[in-house]
Amino acid sequence: MQHCMLAPILALPQSPSMPSAIEKVEALVSPLLRTLEALGVIARHIHPIGYIHLLARAAPPHEELRSARAMPPWPDPYSALRPLLDEAADHALAAVDALHEAAAPPEDTTRAWRGMRAIPEALEALYPLSGILPAVNRFFLDLPHREDADLQKHLMRQPPPPDTGVMLFGDDPDARDAVWVYVPENYDPSQLHPVVFALHGGSGRGRAYLWSWVAACRSRGAILVAPTSLGQTWAIQCDDRDSPHLASILAFVRRKWTIDPQRILLTGMSDGGTFSYTSGLLAGSPFTHLAPVAAAFHPMLAAMAEGERMNGLPIHIIHGQRDWLFPVDMAREAQRHLSGAGAAVTYREIEDLSHSYGADLSTMILDWLLA
Predict the structure, then answer these.
(1) How far apart are CA 337 and CA 223, in angstroms?
(2) What are the pLDDT digits (tens) for 27-78?
(3) Are 200 and 208 in contact (CB under 8 A)?
């Protein structure tokens, strides 16, 4: 709806006053995007040790953004852009302020992690402008696709096709049974589209974790599903209500969009990665590929899986050498046991990765899925 309401801005006739108005838009958009890029770097590399140095290296341009945010209201029709940009800026600045507060003595990265919850809120507020502003459109692509002019043109179609973009299925956006879905705006029902089920970490929500994957899926035409665990975290050690829930969501996706039955990925971070093992190795799992990231692993998971399910099952394991929660030896053990049980394992051990996640990991996994 927001795309359609703002679309007339794209077709406005030029007037002498417009260059200055466009410059004002750019004065807010540019530091906002650079701040979000810097926050993404911090989220990707954050570690309890060396946090202050990381914050200094990434250096979000928050003072420039704060100054731009304080600009007087813009003239019509540019005024229609301002509420979304202001909301995104407010969330980005809240994240920056929390990160700086966490760096003050005594240094407390727990506050930093809490503060970073504002980053997906900023992205959610900003995304409706991806079909309006070329700079925002490029921002929501991964790096290898930011120079693809044809792709950007197709993604900025106005109005966007029905049943594309970011969608909520459920009455309450924060309810545990709510499901967040992203379908690229260049979706073509005559083509097969890969599907990614992305599972958040412990105490997370699908609404936030969605944004770790949007750029990669938007760049490659993949449908993205970000559910929330029905319990406090995924059903790793208790009655499994989550696996049937995921299966029912996938059945809905099959009915609504044209999907590639050979490329249905179950991936997740931390507890979500562990549940990718526990659910994805079940004999009746509907997922064709698994990609756990920073996940815990026990050899019993491989031992309990049926041989037919394991035989040739594509599994992509990513783990950081600096992971402070689940030691990297867990991932090495997973590689040995799963390969020994017959799975087709791709293993990536990343030197500068801790117990964290970045959009570059989504790009790696999706490139593997599509290879």
Answers:
(1) 31
(2) 999 999 999 999 999 999 999 998 999 999 999 999 999 999 999 999 988 9
(3) yes
Q: What are the E-state strand segments in the chain? A: 165-169, 179-183, 193-199, 223-227, 259-269, 289-293, 314-320, 344-350
49 three-class SS: coil
Q: Is the pLDDT of residue 250 over 60?
A: yes
- Beta-ladder partners of 68: none
Same domain, 206 and 351: yes
Contact 180, 166 (CB under 8 A): yes
Range of the domain at 69: 2-119
Give me the DSSP letters along 11-34.
GPPP-TTHHHHHHHHHHHHHHHHH
Those residues whose C-beta lies under 8 Å from the C-beta of residue 169, and which sit 6 or more positions away, are 178, 179, 180, 181, 252
Place of tokens 């999907």: 259
Order the strands of the 223-227 sheet from edge to edge.
Answer: 165-169, 179-183, 223-227, 193-199, 259-269, 289-293, 314-320, 344-350
Do the domain assignments include residue 57?
Answer: yes
Under DSSP, is residue 60 helix (H, G, I), strand (E, B) or coil? coil
- For the chain, first and last CA: distance in Å? 35
